[in-house]
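ZP: hey, is the heme C complex queued? I don't see it on the tracker
AM: it wasn't, my bad. submitting now with these inputs:
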Amino acid sequence: MTLRRIGRAWAALGIAWLALGSATATAIADAAPPPPAKATSGYTEKGADTCLNCHDDAALAGIFRTAHGRPTDPRSPFGHGQLQCEACHGPGDAHARTKGKNKPPVIRFGAKSGTPVARQNEQCLGCHRGTAPHWQGNAHAANDVSCADCHKSHSASDPVRAVATQVEVCSHCHSAQHADLLKPSRHPLLEGKMACTGCHAPHGSTSPAMLVKSTVTETCTGCHTEFRGPFVWEHAPVTDDCTICHQPHGSTQPALLKTRPPFLCQQCHQVQGHPAAAYTPDGLPGGGGPAGGAFLLAGGCVNCHSQVHGSNHPSGSKLMR
Ligand code: HEC
Ligand code: HEC
Ligand code: HEC
Ligand code: HEC
Ligand code: HEC
Ligand code: HEC
Ligand code: HEC
Ligand code: HEC
Ligand code: HEC
Ligand code: HEC
């Protein structure tokens, strides 16, 4: 019955009936509410067929090519016995029956909605609570960001979930991070090689700044495994937090550094106490002659202390090899 209805709706929209692939649901175990009791109140009898009588614009029909449009998945809004359009938009019988203006509204999503954000999100969380277990209280939920601010439910592909298009969605609100991405040293986000979600969990997580792992360092070394350690000779700030020296989103300094050596290093290391001050080459390897001087002036600290992230060399205690 449900199948026939949707079939008709599609035909009316002139859309070919696509072969739906392996729709047997596996990925999210949470989205399995019992089929709701429609009889209780306010829902249309014929579901999508009623809505599509009026809302037949092609842009809305993209939903039939998403996971939500799969009639073969009993958990999806268009699964057998489910509420179809009204699974998200709420009871729409009065809305559908009232002619002319001043229709009783259904739940609307996104920026123009008159429905409170928490109420909008509840429509989605009813099926997706397990997908977003850290949603409650995260920076997005706490600042009235809605699921629909990021997700497009009616388009066949959802820009926020594709690496190539995600940055644009996030940048819509996070202009400071987007500005950082235009700096000379940056992660390859604009090239489409990674996305914000390489480091962030937009539904929330247990770490600060909603990172994908529980600390900054674990997040970074998830990809930069060569700096994960443990090292025989560790460098304390590296073990502590990569962002002591690096700016994750972009920098005018090379290698995403916050400032250049020697200034970077001298925030913690006194010039006094070093075998010689960095800018006074006497007594250092290469001596005080032109060779030694040029070496120092050109290089700053990492020319000699090249293993700034840690060393496994038996005599690497000064992070030089
Ligand atoms: C008789 C025609 C008709 C039917 C049937 C109908 N709608 Fe509407 N709907 C409208 C009109 C016209 C609007 C424009 C807003 C208004 O005037 O209230 C609208 C507005 C909306 C909106 C908000 C968008 C906006 O522009 O404000 C949503 C969402 C919506 N309808 C969903 C549904 C759903 C879901 C159903 C089925 C349960 C449905 N409609 C059935 C005519 C209809
Ligand atoms: C999975 C939840 C979901 C289902 C199912 C769903 N919608 Fe929507 N609908 C949304 C969201 C979210 C938006 C906001 C725009 C977007 O995400 O694409 C929206 C937008 C709309 C709009 C435009 C309203 C506006 O604000 O401009 C209309 C009209 C509408 N939906 C009607 C329908 C109809 C008719 C159906 C059934 C064929 C349906 N929707 C099924 C979630 C859903
Ligand atoms: C009636 C239950 C139901 C409702 C309501 C619902 N969803 Fe879903 N959603 C599902 C199911 C089932 C899947 C498919 C999961 C799978 O394939 O493992 C899904 C998948 C998704 C996906 C992944 C799509 C994909 O292609 O894998 C997103 C994103 C999503 N839903 C967002 C939303 C948002 C946003 C809302 C509210 C506007 C919403 N859902 C409302 C049941 C629902
Ligand atoms: C700040 C943007 C943002 C918001 C707000 C957001 N999502 Fe997502 N969502 C994403 C991104 C990005 C992905 C893809 C995750 C990935 O690729 O690692 C995703 C993936 C999903 C998926 C697919 C399954 C999965 O975990 O990959 C579902 C379902 C989903 N979101 C539901 C929701 C629901 C429900 C809400 C509201 C409670 C919501 N999302 C709010 C950005 C967002
Ligand atoms: C509709 C606007 C909006 C969109 C779209 C959006 N965000 Fe946010 N985001 C916010 C707001 C508001 C806050 C809280 C205030 C702040 O820190 O700027 C926030 C906070 C954050 C934080 C800081 C979390 C914390 O605990 O300090 C991160 C990280 C973040 N967003 C990542 C993302 C990512 C990644 C995306 C895209 C997948 C995204 N946001 C899309 C509005 C948005
Ligand atoms: C390479 C990993 C990485 C990537 C990619 C990344 N971030 Fe971040 N982001 C971080 C880290 C680490 C922090 C926390 C440290 C800090 O304060 O900079 C952070 C902090 C944030 C904050 C909170 C800023 C504040 O001052 O509280 C926001 C918002 C944010 N990121 C948004 C984004 C957005 C949007 C994108 C994609 C355009 C993105 N991030 C990409 C690692 C990353
Ligand atoms: C999702 C994987 C991923 C994560 C997580 C990640 N990075 Fe990267 N990082 C990359 C890629 C890819 C490049 C570019 C490598 C290239 O171009 O050869 C890169 C490059 C860099 C560079 C060199 C940039 C330049 O201009 O030379 C630095 C420094 C860096 N990352 C630091 C970090 C820090 C700090 C973190 C944690 C906040 C982090 N990365 C998290 C993937 C990642
Ligand atoms: C004490 C400051 C400091 C800390 C902390 C630090 N780095 Fe670095 N990092 C540097 C310096 C300086 C360079 C530039 C090295 C050069 O020019 O040879 C660099 C370069 C890099 C590069 C690019 C060059 C390369 O060797 O591939 C990556 C990637 C990188 N760091 C990742 C990380 C990660 C991941 C962490 C945290 C585990 C981290 N860094 C912590 C100072 C630091
Ligand atoms: C946030 C502070 C901080 C920054 C920035 C920093 N370091 Fe360190 N560094 C330390 C600490 C703490 C130790 C461990 C000191 C100890 O064990 O006595 C250390 C140890 C060292 C050692 C080994 C010293 C020894 O006595 O074994 C060298 C060499 C070194 N750092 C070089 C650098 C260089 C080069 C930079 C800049 C790229 C730098 N450090 C940036 C805090 C910092
Ligand atoms: C020309 C090479 C060279 C340069 C450039 C250089 N160092 Fe060193 N540094 C050394 C040598 C050699 C030692 C080890 C002496 C020893 O083993 O007793 C050393 C030792 C250190 C130590 C350990 C001090 C101690 O008491 O044992 C620190 C910390 C350090 N350097 C930081 C820096 C910082 C910060 C800079 C940049 C401002 C820098 N170095 C530039 C060669 C250099």
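AM: back. The chain has 13 helices and no strands.
ZP: great, adding it to the tracker
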